[in-house]
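Dear colleague,

Following up on yesterday's call, I've attached the two folding results inline so they're easy to grep. Please treat them as preliminary; we haven't cross-checked anything against experimental data yet. The first protein's sequence and structure tokens come first.
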Amino acid sequence: MKPSLLVACCAAAASAQSVTVQVLADSGRIPISPWIYGRNNSMSDVPSQPVPDSATTLYNEAGLRMLRETGGNNLTKYNWRKKLTSHPDWYNNVYAHDWDYSAASIQAKLPNAQSIFGFGLLGWVVSNTNNNFNDGAYNNSAWWNGVEQNLAGGGVPNAAGGSVAKVQGDATKYTTPWPADSVAGILDSWFGPGGDGLDSTRLRYWSMDNEPDCWNGTHDDVDSLLTGHTLTPEEYVQRWKATAFAVRAKFPGIKLVGPASASEWQWYNWPTGSISYKGASYCFPEYLIKRLAEIQDSTGVRMIDVYDVHLYFQAGNKTDALQTQRILFDTNYMDPNANGVHTVNGGWDTSIKRQYFFARVRGWLDKYFGVGNGVGVGSTESGVDSSVSNHASESAVWHASILGTFADNRGEIYTAWSWNPGMWEALHLFSRYAHNTRVKSVSTLDSLVSGYSSISAAGDSLLVVLVNRDASNAHATTVNLSGFSPTGNAVTLQLANLNGETFHSNTNTALKTGSATVSGTSLSLTLPKMSITAVQLLGTGNAVSSVRSRTPTNAKVTLLPGILRVEADAQGTVLVLDFHGRVLARSSLHQGMADIAVGGLARGLYTVQWPGGLKRVALLGN
């Protein structure tokens, strides 16, 4: 490096804020789900066009552990008997799709992977290819802005473009009714006597359809044109119920994943507007959770296992886009793109800008299903805008931030839809090098530099992944350890200055190996701008089981707007009690934290009780 460049780089590094990351190896220990290392659309569903062995070798070497192969919108009208589905973004034309082949390919070629397929809840599936719109004759099958017109079934195109055909196609010509028993029949076909012989233990998770909040657009050939109206929230609940009953009867150990809401607006809203139920107004997720809990309570049939939404972030600029992982659990983050969350209380309140969507979902799950309900959270599709996706280093950092956030907060499933250069590198680093148990990390500048840490079962190895989201500056970073005594210096694995696709195999990657000097229980290093640096440490710490069994005596209790937050090194239930000892609110500790909605409680003194301790707090009321 030329001296002038060295001086300039050192000056830039010196001007950036220094960061301290405290790793608490005995705190916040939770298992990391292997199913967060996922992706969509990785396998072929056309037997004559198999994915090449080089691709599946790359998947294995990168550590891909969960494959969602429903095809997104193609799930909804999939006919598993005839192996046909419909493309809502291509005239609703019907084409061959063979899930049997996809599932068998995964089980044969990716021995460490799970896969996700799904159940259609629309009530109709495609039945034939005889009524497709002849796009070849129309414009040589070229894309134009009229591809969303409903032209299958005899429609007439509107040459002006747009999504509305001059004459709408007749969906009855290419669809057939599909009740819940037909939906569930795929389980017999795959796992039953005389079936395909697939391993059900590797097909535990099933999507309860895909983006139902958009069916009035994506599947309006059925959802309004054929049925005469847009599906109501309660009709959707009843179809969920019927399908859950049918599939549980055949496969009790199945895990039901949904509703796969499309985007931040749809997370909270159904297309027919606000939802009134028994005299109150609800946003869609609270209504869905409440109704599924009522059905489960009255029937004893488990209704949901993972609450799933799609994470499509269009922040419009790199700075905001690289903060979007914070809208999932961070109760302090003010989302500059907040929109749907304004309706979270059943009305319209633009002062609400804190998303913490999955934290809210967990609060509703605890409220309606009860503490210890076992329902996870996850995302089966995601994508980010071009300010990030067009740059490999930014994509790697964004993906690492999502993976670290899911690991830190007990996310159960994450399968990205859009896949950009840099994401294989981030996946490989986490999936191959992270341990199975997360431990708590605290950064003094978490908006730009985060630490995501994990420890081995024996407590003798620690991995700290440091993510620098700063696009302009390197950051001098000190890592302080507690609960772990390192032996020798650290090995570092770093991703920085990525250009295009750099991951080709476990040995042909942009990951650079280095070292960092350890002094006592601390080490210091400089993190390049827009980089990921994993620090590998060997040493002595407590085995995972020995720490999980401890009972804490102290907790941090914080009052936030309408929320009482309790942070404790524990697992179990947090209670809010009145003067007479009556339980007024409760929540379960997830990765050492519980958020309890207390906005409805009157002004006064209350007792907050957690495993191993209690504290009196004063609430100001409404």
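Below is the second protein, in the same order (sequence, then structure):
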Amino acid sequence: MLRRKFTTLALLIMMSFILAFTTFSLAATADINDSVSTDEGKCTQFFMGRDTVDNGAYLYGRTEDYSETWRKITAIHEAETHAPGDIFRSSERTSTFTWPYPEQTLRYIYSKDSIHNESNYPEPYAEIGMNEMGVTVSSSVTLSSSKTQITGSGGPDRMVTNGLAEVDTTTLVLMQAKTAREGVELLAKIVDTKGAEGREGTVISDPNEVWFFQILSGHQYVGVKCPDNMVGLSPNMTGNVGLNNFVDITDTENFVVSPGLISVAKAAGTFVGSPNDPDPANPTLIKIADSYVNGPTNHQTSVRLRCGYGYLYGYTTQAEINANIPGSQYLNIFVEPRKDRKYSLYEAMRLLAARGEGTEWVAGNPNSNGQAIGNDRTQESHVVEVRSWMAPELATIEWLAQGPAEFSVYLPFMGNLLTDVHEKFYFDDHASYRPNEPYNNNTWHVFRQLYTLCKGSATSSTNATVVEGYRAKYGKGVRDFWEKYQKSLIEQQAYVDKTLAKILKNKGRNAVEKAITEISTALQAETYDYAVKLVAELRAFIAAGAVGNFEPSFLYDETAVPHYAGLLFDHAVPSASVEKLNGNKNNLTVTVTEVYADGSTNEVFKTFSINNNAADKYVVGDYSVYVDTKGNTQIRDCRIL
């Protein structure tokens, strides 16, 4: 991710942040065709094919890295009707980019910048979201700078001022795409028509497949259907894709490519084709990174890529990576998975917190300067889980963690079904954390504060041993608690899935939307409360100068787990019993046993005075129960009306 170009006024406003966090270089304000460092944006994108994951789901996601002060909110954007001629205008005020609105837009959930981050922009930048059709967009990672022969002065395909920018990509796709391929084709059409302002990598999925779309230069791009049997990483790098890492422009099932993909590279003299091309005079195979990237870019040039490979395979040295990852001057996005076992959802989540622990490249303090995947400037992390075997309405979950993932927790957002989120996710009336009003902060504020406390007072020059000492003293107890909480959430999601499937079958989509919204907002509130308590206890521990390592007071409390599946009502079972009294009166006790998704139960009962052999309806809690008695104490019929 590279933030959009800034006006002079915006630059002056943000200068203090630039100096403090070195978020991006002044080159971002220069000629849009100037080169951008491949390590500029610091975001890291990953993908795991369904054959590489233990439960058969596609997994993909990203860290969003920019600034320790750049706040995020999550909200619902309702569907809209537009008149013919209505025009979408770029969210970047300095851009003249426009695109026609569809007649009807879709409802979607999105995580976006706070309105207070950039007052110069009318609609904050959205980077992850899902629409009501289950189309999910993760956008974007800033990709490698292009070869100067292509986008430099006099090049055949320079970047386009006022073209498609990352600030608008997620919104444009979510508002209208009904499938992942439709989203890719929309972006392709926009770049064909308007050109592109930046080189961005965007992942788009639907309940059945996942696509990766890379913009290479002003009008050149390639979209690829992600393979089932491979894993992939992009730490701000354009990468080769396709069979043997060649794009076949004739394979329209697996690729969406720009018309000039090969001809532009040939015109620039940078084209790299395949020796096995069936017609070298009219080639159809191209290595896109080798042809377009101002490289080389591979694991020898990126600490984040080494961190990722180290995590995915268990490598601890550069020599191991060199010996096991196929050699190439340029990055190949998709590589073989590890052989000994498949990846889990929890592992994917923790990948986005990886700092190279236990490896030779953790030297110094890469977590602070942005060299590691998990670093100080992460604003949010997300993992999208696509379960293609499930009903389309239930197939996709966006797991979202606020702040750096290291000391955070991922909450499940079934965004195509949610009609609301808890107010603490979109509450946003102040810029900084309020220590004296702990519950008057939004979710992002609280998790950012928690991370700051857990990492101690390390700076970019702090020795790695000292860094790990801080994290052990202040952060390990927090990590341990969230690990227990996270694994419980993942386990509970299986119960939730089964119950939602029954509700969908028996009562329809509206009932599912109501149910998942109710339990999700309750979970969001509960998690927020735990995070506030963690901050309070850790602040007190630090203030007291306590010896030993911090442990939350509720770390070993067996009841301190998420109450999620236990909130989702499954069904109710009525029962009744009669107590025989003297005369013609008896006592009837009616009980309704409520059963929840996780199998837990709750009983509601009430006793009524009835005549012998009575048959009537009785109100017990929220239920109206019909009971027919016979022969003094026999129950002929008992059912909920």
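For the second protein, one point worth flagging: The first helix runs from residue 8 to 21.

Best wishes,
A.L.
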